[in-house]
C-alpha cells in the first residue's frame, strides 16, 4: 500500500461547515504530496497528488511566490490540521467550495511570507474501491464491534443479576429502594430499544454525530484492517505456494534436456548393409530369451 493511501486511511474524519455545505473531510499531507477525501453524505470526492503536481499548480496560482513543493505542502498542512482537529479554532485561511460538473473544488486563500497564497483542491468522484476502503468496510467493522460489545455487556449484566440474587438469598437488603432494579432480559431490552431509542440513535444528520462520537472506534477498526492486510501480505511473501518450484528448480528443468542431449553419445545413422549385421547379432539373443521363457512355461 502506498504511503499516502495508508496514511489517509488511518486519519479520522473531520466535520467542516462551509457556508451551506456540510462536509466530512480527511486529509494526509507529507513532503512528497497529499491525499484528500471529502463527502457530503451524497457523494465522495478524492484527490491525490505528488510534489510535481503541487509545484506546477503553485506556479499557476501563485506567480509571485517561489518556493519548493515541500514548503507549499507544509503550509497547507498548517492550514488544514488545526481546522480539521477543531472546527471552532479560528483559521488563518478562508475556505470555500464549488461544484463543477461532477468534481468538487475546495478553494483556500491565506498568506505565505506576507504574500497572498491561493490553492485549489481538485477533487474528482472517488472510485467504488476507495469508498469501500474508507467507509463501507470500516462501518461494517464498527457495527460488528459494537454488536460484540453489546453481547459482552449483556453477559456482564446477567452475571451481576446472579450476584445480586446471591446477596438477596444470603439475607442482604437494599438500604435505598430507589436502587432496586429488575433482572435484565436481553430480548425485552432490544425490543424496547427498537421502539423507543432507534429513531433518535439513527439520526445521521449532516454527519457530525458520527464525526464527533465514533472516530476513536473508526481509527481502531482501520488500524486493525491495515494490520490484518499487512500480515496477510507478509504470509504470502514468506510462504510459497504449493505449486511453486524450489529456487533454481526452474533453471534445472529448463537445462535438463540440453544436458541429456549433449551427454548422450552420438549414434551414426546405420547404413542398409550394416543393418543386417546388427540385426543378426541381436536376433539370436532375443530368440534365446524367447526359448527359455517358452520352455519354462510349457515344462
Automatic annotation (TrEMBL):
Sequence intervals crossing the membrane: none
Residue ranges constituting the XLF-like coiled-coil region domain according to the UniProt record: 127-175
GO MF terms held by the record: DNA end binding; DNA polymerase binding
A GO BP entry: response to ionizing radiation
Basic residues bias (residue ranges): 288-299
Localization in the cell: Nucleus
GO cellular component: DNA ligase IV complex; DNA-dependent protein kinase-DNA ligase 4 complex; fibrillar center; nucleoplasm; site of double-strand break
Region (Disordered): 233-299
Keywords, comma-separated and alphabetical: DNA damage, DNA repair, DNA-binding, Nucleus
N-terminal signal peptide: none
Sequence ranges assigned to domain XLF-like N-terminal in this UniProt record: 12-124
Bias (Polar residues) ranges: 275-285
The keyword DNA-binding is assigned to this record: yes
Keyword set includes DNA-binding: yes
Gene3D superfamilies named in the record: DNA double-strand break repair and VJ recombination XRCC4, N-terminal, Helix hairpin bin
Subunit structure: Homodimer; mainly exists as a homodimer when not associated with XRCC4. Interacts with XRCC4; the interaction is direct and is mediated via a head-to-head interaction between N-terminal head regions. Component of the core long-range non-homologous end joining (NHEJ) complex (also named DNA-PK complex) composed of PRKDC, LIG4, XRCC4, XRCC6/Ku70, XRCC5/Ku86 and NHEJ1/XLF. Additional component of the NHEJ complex includes PAXX.
Cross-referenced PANTHER family: NON-HOMOLOGOUS END-JOINING FACTOR 1
Family statement drawn from the similarity comment of this UniProt entry: Belongs to the XRCC4-XLF family. XLF subfamily.
Protein name as annotated: Non-homologous end-joining factor 1
Organism: Canis lupus dingo (dingo)
Taxonomic classification: Eukaryota, Metazoa, Chordata, Craniata, Vertebrata
Amino acid at each position: 500500500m502506498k504511503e499516502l493511501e495508508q496514511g489517509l486511511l488511518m486519519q479520522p474524519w473531520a466535520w467542516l461547515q462551509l457556508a451551506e455545505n456540510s462536509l466530512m473531510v480527511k486529509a494526509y499531507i507529507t513532503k512528497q504530496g497529499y491525499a484528500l477525501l471529502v463527502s457530503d453524505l451524497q457523494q465522495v470526492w478524492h484527490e491525490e497528488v505528488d510534489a510535481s503536481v503541487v509545484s506546477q499548480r503553485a506556479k499557476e496560482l501563485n506567480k509571485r511566490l517561489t518556493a519548493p513543493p515541500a514548503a507549499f505542502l507544509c503550509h497547507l498542512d498548517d492550514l488544514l490540521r488545526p481546522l480539521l482537529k477543531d472546527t471552532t479554532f479560528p483559521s488563518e485561511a478562508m475556505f470555500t467550495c464549488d461544484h463543477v460538473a461532477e468534481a468538487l473544488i475546495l478553494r483556500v486563500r491565506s498568506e505565505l511570507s506576507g504574500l497572498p497564497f491561493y490553492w485549489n483542491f481538485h477533487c474528482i468522484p472517488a472510485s467504488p474501491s476507495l469508498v469501500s476502503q474508507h467507509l463501507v468496510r470500516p462501518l461494517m467493522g464498527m457495527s460488528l464491534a459494537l454488536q460484540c460489545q453489546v453481547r459482552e455487556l449483556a453477559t456482564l449484566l446477567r452475571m451481576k443479576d446472579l450476584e445480586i440474587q446471591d446477596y438477596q438469598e444470603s439475607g442482604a437488603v437494599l438500604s435505598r429502594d430507589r436502587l432496586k432494579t429488575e433482572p435484565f432480559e436481553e430480548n425485552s431490552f432490544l425490543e424496547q430499544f427498537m421502539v423507543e431509542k432507534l429513531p433518535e440513535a439513527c439520526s445521521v444528520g449532516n454527519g457530525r454525530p458520527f464525526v464527533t462520537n465514533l472516530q476513536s472506534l473508526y481509527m481502531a477498526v482501520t488500524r486493525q484492517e491495515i494490520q490484518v492486510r499487512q500480515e496477510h501480505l507478509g504470509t504470502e511473501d514468506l510462504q510459497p505456494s504449493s505449486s511453486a518450484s524450489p529456487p533454481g528448480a526452474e533453471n534445472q528443468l529448463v537445462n535438463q534436456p540440453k544436458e541429456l542431449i549433449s551427454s548422450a553419445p552420438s549414434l551414426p545413422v546405420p547404413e542398409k548393409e550394416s543393418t543386417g549385421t546388427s540385426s543378426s547379432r541381436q536376433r539370436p539373443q532375443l530368440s534365446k530369451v524367447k526359448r527359455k521363457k517358452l520352455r519354462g512355461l510349457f515344462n
